[in-house]
Design brief:
The complex is a heterodimer of chains A (175) and B (196). Chain A is an alpha/beta fold. Chain A has helices at residues 2-14, 18-25, 34-50, 109-122, 138-150, 164-174, and strands at 57-62, 79-84, 90-94, 105-107, 127-132, 157-160. In chain A, strands 4-3-2-5-6 form a 5-stranded mixed beta sheet. In chain A, helix 4 crosses helix 5 (138-150). The longest helix of chain A has 17 residues, at 34-50. Chain B has 196 residues and is an alpha/beta fold. Chain B folds into 2 domains: 2-33, no CATH class; 50-188, no CATH class. Chain B has helices at residues 2-8, 17-33, 82-89, 107-111, 128-145, 164-176; strands at residues 50-51, 57-58, 64-69, 75-79, 94-98, 113-114, 117-118, 122-126, 153-158, 181-188. Chain B has a 7-stranded mixed beta sheet. In chain B, strand 6 and strand 7 form a beta hairpin. Classes of the chains: A alpha/beta (175), B alpha/beta (196). The interface between A and B is large, with 52 and 64 residues.
Chain lengths: 175, 196
Amino acid sequence: MAGGDFDAAESGNSRKKQPKWKKGKKVGVRIDMTPMVDVIMLLLTFFMLTTTLAMPQVMQINLPKGDQEDKVKVDMGNVLYVRVSEKGNIYFSQGISNGTEGAPENVSFANMKSKLEQLYAANNNLLILLKFDRKMKYTTMVDVLDEINKAKIEKRYSFMKMEDIDREIVKRAEG
Amino acid sequence: MGKSRSIKKPGVKIDMTPLVDVIMLLLTFFMLTATFKAEMSENIEVKLPKSLNVDTTKLPEKDVMTLTLTKAGDIYVDVDNFKVRKEVFGDEFGIGVYHPDSTGKSEVETTQKIGGKDVKRKVIVLNREKFEKTLGDLRVALKNMTQNKSDYKIVLKGDKDVDFGVVEDLMQSLKDTRNTRFSLVTDIDAGEPGKK
């Protein structure tokens, strides 16, 4: 009795959409995709977590071989000393042809590129001698090399040991 | 009929096909681009400095000799060929460590850790002389193994905060051993100007 009532109510309730629904859905088998999605999701997370994206890039450095024939005499007028202090302050001083060098000039990191380009425009044979303080951070060195690479100049630079005299110059410039 | 439908009724059916499509695409992408980290051969973590490189050179994929400079000022020398490691370090997962500052000891000697992490690999402590010899030995070992076909490319992975002094010492060693060509590994700079 009650069941019959229930049936009637049920069929009455779903009558509106059921015929249409049936017709449209008839064709094709329903595949439950949930397990597949589960597995694929697992695989996806696995690969996402194990991949290392964005391969790091490299900066090529060439050191001189140090042979006798490698040694070149350069005109001091073409030399630009770039000294970087312990704190990472950058000082440019230009060499003068008589063997001495000009007064150190503090160059901010932001202006370094334009300054280099300007100096290169004035003298195409510019040779940059880098003198980094031993207590300076490695990242500063990469930044400085990067700025030199970025400036549209012929990349001619070499590393030199920072001697006491250089430290003295930097100290005086720092005041 | 009527009964079975009344059981199925509750719950909304979601069509998962588009979702599956997208996930499949993502999956294929990650599968194809995946390069796996070998757990044993890459456990020294350093924070790389950033650079915006004009000539976009990528890290070579094989025959790499990695010199890792950690914050503590140690230099770890490692190669990607385990046969070479076996021959030179006497262990397939050997790694050499050299502390250029002769007044102290390397982190791995004092704390048995590298960068605060436990070491799973066999560490061989080298002094300057041995370090320079090892650089040559590794090269020779690879050359012998491949009948002179391949040679190591040296890459320098330095921590951002390592003192330049360590780099300077290393460059001196490289120069002395006639390894005058090497590369610095950097992260790609996102490109904000005026960073320091």
